[in-house]
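Researcher: Good morning. I'm working through a list of sequences from a screen, and I'd like to move beyond sequence-only analysis. For each chain I'm collecting a predicted structure so we can compare shapes side by side. This is the next one on the list. No need for commentary yet; just the structure.
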Amino acid sequence: MLLPLLLAGSISILPPTGAATANDSLEINYDQEQLGFAAMQAGDTMTAIQQLERASAELPDDPGRLINLGTAYARMGRLIDARAAFSRAAASRTHFDLILADGSVVDSRRAASYALRKLDDRPSLMIASGN
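Model: Good morning. Structure tokens for this chain:
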């Protein structure tokens, strides 16, 4: 199954309605909060970060969670943390095909690499973790 991805200025992975299958045939079942999508769509970035960080125990290297976490960190100006999350997603052994908002399909590693390039387009001021 493909995971849908919303690209609207920033990257956010939508929670799938069922299970998603990774390239290594493992099934990953998400609950509504693990990808923080609803909170991010509502503009509640702090809640999204809390949800995404809480999900790290169950989904430590999940590229969808990492991309959304990186996006949330970037929205808060925590660019160092965003870069770390996107880098982990780009390097993850687990990866998915994602559906972009325009209907195109991209591998999660490519989406994470794209997000890293978008960070490079931002001002160079970086805020460390926890600020």
